Amino acid sequence: MKNFSIIPKNADLEKYGLKDVQPHWNLSPEELQKLTIQKGMGKETSNGTLAVNTGKFTGRSPQDRFLVKDNYTKDKVWWGKINKPIEPLQFDVLQNEILKYLSGKEIYVRDGYVCADPKYKMNVRTVTEFPWSNMFVYNMFLRPEIKELENFEEDWLILCAPGYVCPNPSAHGIRQGNFSILNFTKKVALVGGSAYTGEMKKGIFSALNLILPSDQNVLPMHCSANVGEDGDTAIFFGLSGTGKTTLSADPNRKLIGDDEHGWTEDNNIFNFEGGCYAKAIDLTEEKEPDIFRAIKPGALLENVIFKEDGEVDYMDASITQNTRVCYPIDHIDNIQIPSYAKNPKNIFFLTCDAFGVLPPVSKLTPGQAAYHFISGYTAKVAGTEAGITEPVPSFSACFGAPFMPLHPTVYAEMLSKKMQDANVNVWLINTGWSGGPHGVGSRIKLKYTRAMITAILNGDLEKVDFEQHPIFGLFMPKYCPNVPTEMLDPMNTWLQKGGYVSKAIQLAHSFHLNFEKFASQASEQIIEGGPLIDEHHHLSENIKN
């Protein structure tokens, strides 16, 4: 087993200000699981997988995420609701408080790295209060060889203290007792007051999302990626619930990674991570065979409910809708080793359009690609949140706004340039509704979506004619193998053509309204990539009888 209690030669925790601690260095997952059970912090499922409860926080707390405003960040970061500033001195006080809190305790140290491409490798040392938090880091970051551990030196340090709750938040520039803060000058990430493990993962990847484009001309992407037998790489962007994990898991292609990647100037696509952090709600072997089978000893389940026989009830959301499992990527059979590849050929933007008006598949121009990338559209459906009774548009810039420190147009311009330089095709795939909105129409069948993606990857759509959508300007194929031709133009699937036009204009208007905050920094090409029509126009001449 790798990482079996390897203590680096330069191991010295006092240099960070940690005093009188009982450190456990680089324990194996088996040891961490055993300690978690012994300390009453978790229990095992019927197949021996560790399950824990993350307590008060079962998801990220975006309002409690801060970046230190200093010479490195002040002129780079897009400051606002997402990227909130905190002063260096305020950070120093909170760091000292966490160090004081952890001193004298039993703690767990993990040495790992992120970025699979050796050229961009970044070593991360993580100090955690809980053994299972350390197991999460083992799964999610890349795992060094024993030789590398012996002389390990970190580039970044994570201090994770869920038990420390700040007693006087307003005096320290934060909102409440929990916080997640990045300091780019000290290269320290603090997580306090929350045991939700995703704060550590997203903290370090938010750091990469600033460092890589600013210093190394690498586009960071919140996406999954896979590679075919011929070495062609496909990239899948999509917000939660759009099918990103499902569609990138293809038995005919090797998975590079399922959540965070970089695109280098020499057209390498590399995984940031060493594992997967998947939603587990409503999980079945039939729907998600790869994820389901990955849940075995070594994986870590969060906030799930048990049945009486020790089996997990994946349908039970009584703790949270955001039940999770993390596992090392080698729990999946068909993976790319090492996890990077060249030659990106196709990019898929996945959206779950609950209005039922976007085409199931369409090809984007460079301007449209940048526009839809900045928009990051999907829709919330009735029942997902309190008060939602009909579809609501949801936009998350670059398909990952909460983790993007730079202005979205910076990432979009990089994407546009890279896709043109590499001659990449970009496609918008609607995995949502057809024949009417949510509650009237029906969800597009997974087999049709898979058929569209397969046709694209095989080059079958290079030979067909396209027509332009009159409202969104998207280019729809007139034919796709193994997909009913009538559904390729979404207007055909609605009984009431006028109802379709009205709903489509409504969504187009939402796109325009959302884009207003980006328009001042967007090029003309990007602005022209939006819908052709707004609510003030009429489309009666385009209604097909």
What does this structure look like?
- Helices cover 24% and strands 24% of the residues.
- By secondary structure, it is an alpha/beta fold.
- Strands 11, 12, 13, 14, 15, 21, 22, 23 and 26 form a nine-stranded mixed sheet that branches. An eight-stranded mixed sheet has the order 1-6-7-8-10-9-4-5, sandwiched between helices. A five-stranded mixed sheet has the order 2-3-17-20-16, covered by helices on one side.
- The N and C termini lie far apart (66 Å).
- Mean pLDDT is 93; it is low at 535-545.
Note the main attributes of this structure.
545 residues; alpha/beta; 9-stranded mixed sheet; 8-stranded mixed sheet; 30 strands; globular; disordered C terminus
What is the secondary structure topology, with strand pairs?
Elements: E1 22-25, H1 29-38, E2 42-44, E3 50-52, E4 65-68, E5 84-86, H2 88-102, E6 106-114, E7 122-128, H3 131-140, H4 146-150, E8 156-161, E9 179-183, E10 188-192, H5 198-216, E11 219-227, E12 233-238, H6 244-248, E13 254-257, E14 260-263, E15 268-271, E16 275-279, H7 289-294, E17 300-302, E18 305-306, E19 312-313, E20 324-328, E21 340-342, E22 344-351, E23 361-364, H8 366-375, E24 377-380, E25 392-395, H9 408-421, E26 425-430, E27 433-434, E28 442-443, H10 446-457, E29 466-468, E30 475-477, H11 497-519, H12 524-527
Parallel strand pairs: 1-6, 3-17, 4-5, 4-9, 7-8, 8-10, 12-22, 22-26
Antiparallel strand pairs: 2-3, 6-7, 9-10, 11-12, 11-13, 11-14, 14-15, 15-21, 16-20, 17-20, 18-19, 23-26, 24-25, 27-28, 29-30
